[in-house]
Amino acid sequence: MQNGNSEPRKHTISVQVENKFGVLSRVAGLFSARGYNIESLSVGETIDPTVSRMTIVVHGDEFVIEQVMKQLHKLVDVIKVSDLTDDNHVERELVLVRVNAEPQHRAEILRVGDIFRAKVIDVTPVSYTLEATGDEGKIEAMIELLKPMGIQELVRTGKVAIARGPKTRARKVVEASKRPRVSDDPRVVGFAD
Amino acid sequence: MRHSGARIVLECLKREGVDTIFGLPGGAVLPIYDALYDFEGLRHILVRQEAAAGHAAEGYARTTGKVGVCLVTSGPAATNLVTALQDAMMDSIPIVAFTGQVPTHLIGNDAFQEADNVGITRPCTKHNFLVKDGKDLGPTIREAFHLAKTGRPGPVHVDLPKDILVKETDLVWPEKVHMRSYNPTYDGHPGQIKKAARLIARARKPVFYVGGGVISSDAAAELRQLAELTQVPVTTTLMGLGAFPSAHPLSIEMLGMHGTYYANMAVHHSDVLVAIGARFDDRVTGKVDMFAPHAEIVHIDIDPSSISKNIKVDIPIVGDCRRVLKALLAAVREELKEEMPSAVREARKQWAEQIVEWREKAPLAYEWSDDVIKPQYVVQEISNLTQGEAFIVTGVGQHQMWAAQYYKFKHPRHWCTSGGLGTMGYGLPTAMGVQAANPGKLVINIDGDGSFQMNSQELATCFTEGLPVKTVIINNSGHGMVRQWQRIIYKERYCAIDLPGIPDWVKLAEAYGCVGLRVTKPSEVVLALEKMLSTPAPVILDVCVDKDECVFPMVPAGGANTDMILALPTREVKDKAAKSQTGF
Known about the structure:
The structure holds two protein chains of two kinds.
Chain A: E1 9-18, H1 23-34, E2 37-45, E3 51-60, H2 62-74, E4 78-83, E5 89-100, H3 106-115, E6 119-124, E7 127-134, H4 136-146, E8 151-156, E9 160-163, H5 167-176
Antiparallel strand pairs in A: 1-3, 1-4, 2-3, 5-7, 5-8, 5-9, 6-7
Chain B: E1 2-4, H1 5-15, E2 20-24, H2 30-36, E3 43-46, H3 50-64, E4 68-72, H4 76-90, E5 95-101, H5 117-121, E6 127-130, H6 137-149, E7 155-161, H7 162-166, E8 168-170, H8 190-202, E9 206-210, H9 212-216, H10 220-230, E10 234-236, E11 251-254, H11 261-269, E12 272-276, H12 282-285, E13 296-301, E14 315-318, H13 321-336, H14 342-361, H15 375-386, E15 391-394, H16 398-406, E16 415-416, H17 427-437, E17 443-448, H18 449-452, H19 459-464, E18 470-475, H20 480-488, H21 505-511, E19 515-519, H22 525-534, E20 539-544, H23 571-580
Parallel strand pairs in B: 2-3, 2-4, 4-5, 5-7, 6-7, 9-10, 9-12, 10-11, 12-13, 13-14, 15-16, 15-17, 17-18, 18-20, 19-20
Antiparallel strand pairs in B: 1-8
Helix pairs in contact in B: 1-2, 1-6, 3-4, 3-17, 8-13, 10-13, 11-14, 15-16, 15-22
């Protein structure tokens, strides 16, 4: 379109979909068919086993993102689409990294791990495997610091994101949880009071 | 009571109100054909190639407003059907396509006639289903029909593994369809409608730009009322032909690449453009920055993703065209209670005069010849003889554009053409579906010699099923539209366009049990057409036309609509066209 007004940037889009066969392929196919750039996509079941939530990171200007949202919404299996980018939300990514652990580096690796609150989840005489979660910046920073040691293998989940809840209501739910009630079911939190 | 899955499928179709299925049997759907053997109330029309089943279902759907149904087997049948599905997808035609699939335990085994049907049709359907359990048959078919006909209509595909069709199970039939993830918006936003009404009432140079959405929502009457009330000129897209009578004084006919000079000029100079059920396709807009550059644009569409996709819209209204037009009509009446400022009244008068001036400057025209038949003349005579009452179907190419330009359309749902996908070979099978849906009515397929050959085997279906489709082949012994582009844009470097006189269409018609006629002189055209119309059987009328004739006006791809080529261009214009061409 003629007026690609805003600057392209990364958007975090959260999509609730029916937990059905073929949904992932519908979403992935949409991105490839329309030529949108997907940076990461993660998907998993929600508290309601019939619903899955996808977190998609996509690069584009406002106009592209508007079309992405509309096209996603047009898919019959998509229940809800929200762009979290400019809303109050939390993003996390998990990384597993197996790094060379030569004797002279073993202490340093553990120190780096400590700083980033990473866990050691596997040890061999020649390697450490670390697990860390955090936002993109933290993960990138940790990887940078581990690189000199020699990274053998690395796997990232892609970003997952969730909107922050309104604080007052969250507190009420915590109190209520002492005694089981219908409103404890997270699906009906919105109607709790 | 328990039934086989196959019988449940048929029972569900009947409950959905289906009376005709277009299909072709094969291994994976044999259980359905076995159940069909003694099933009452469904007419099955046996086509000769699977794509034809899909197109016939489209013809059925477009002229009746009901959902068209086709049924084919697995593997190659499903892949043959893909073209028709994509065609229905791009033109928003409600069809439900059933394909067979290998038994569930063999899926993924590279079994005989296996293909990943739902994987293949996913991007070319509105939605698709693979049924993995017999009890899901009823709910799935219910959802399939619901999806096909509601919201923005489109094709839905249901894949049926053979074992599901064989196994006995109970029929589950939900009375209502509820899908939490699918809730189309039908009523336009009242505030937006009020804004649009105000804009229309105060516009000095307004134009209504009308597409196929007005036809699929049956809003032609509302459109006419609104146009007559506001006296706004109406241009239609290729898909919108018939939504507004071509001969109406407010009609400025088709716009776009081969639209009229006056429609394109009016849209270009408009100050308010109201797009109704149209999607700003590149064949309509030409160069987007140059499309209606002075206009405030109102866009009425049921599909939110159509809005601001190609052109930035000032007043978007998401909703069903018919409901929105009704509301808009009321809102405009309200606005018109106030006296129109005299400046606006004066401007509107000038606008009407300006359009008349453009119309007189460059009306649709061609050069008459006593020796060789001009294709435009053939369409004009078809139009005269049928008075806009016939169902007109076309293939794709020059003949399609001439049919769109020179046929005087009177009614909605009387015009079927492959608009979005441009599927050559669309004509005959679609006409067949139209004829099956409208028995006793006159169905004329205006086709090209290139296009017709892509599905000519369906003459057999026309003959055996008693579908007396009349085909007029505008025969220019070649791929005329490609020839035209090579002539004007590719500097007369003609390549791969000749179809020199074979087959003999008269003999071909006769070979299929149909009637073949041929005409080579302009003076014989009317007689031949009359003879065709009075023949009760399916007919091919081979009209040998001037092969050098081109479709004008023409906007070269990527050009602005104001850069129309109105007649065979000089060398200078050709060079300019070659430069503006953007690669397709």
